[in-house]
TrEMBL record:
Species this chain originates from: Methanonatronarchaeum thermophilum
Signal peptide stretch: none
Name this polypeptide is given: Large ribosomal subunit protein uL23
Pfam families, alphabetized: Ribosomal_L23 (PF00276)
Source organism, top-level taxon: Archaea
Protein role: Binds to 23S rRNA. One of the proteins that surrounds the polypeptide exit tunnel on the outside of the ribosome.
């Protein structure tokens, strides 16, 4: 089971990234917050501070991952090809 499906690239996701040091991803609907945190930490070598999840009106699960202040969300986004 793949936990991380794809990053979300919208104006709102970009604003959240800049203001809150957060990245937004669509994740597997069955994934728990701990599983998402572990996968993000493993894939990108960062420390996750907080995760908020929601189910979109399209039935997908969106996770907003706030990174520890030791890491820069914009740098990670550039590294994974969002920008």
């Amino acid at each position: 089971m793949s936990i991380i499906i794809n990053p979300v690239v919208t104006e709102k996701a970009t604003r959240v990234m800049e203001q809150n040091n957060s990245l937004t991803f669509i994740v597997n609907i069955d994934a728990t917050k701990n599983e998402v945190a572990d996968e993000i930490e493993y894939m990108y070598g960062v420390e996750v501070e907080n995760i908020n999840t929601m189910i979109t009106p399209q039935g997908k699960k969106k996770a907003i991952i706030t990174l520890s202040s030791d890491y820069d969300a914009e740098e990670i986004a550039g590294r994974i090809g969002i920008f």
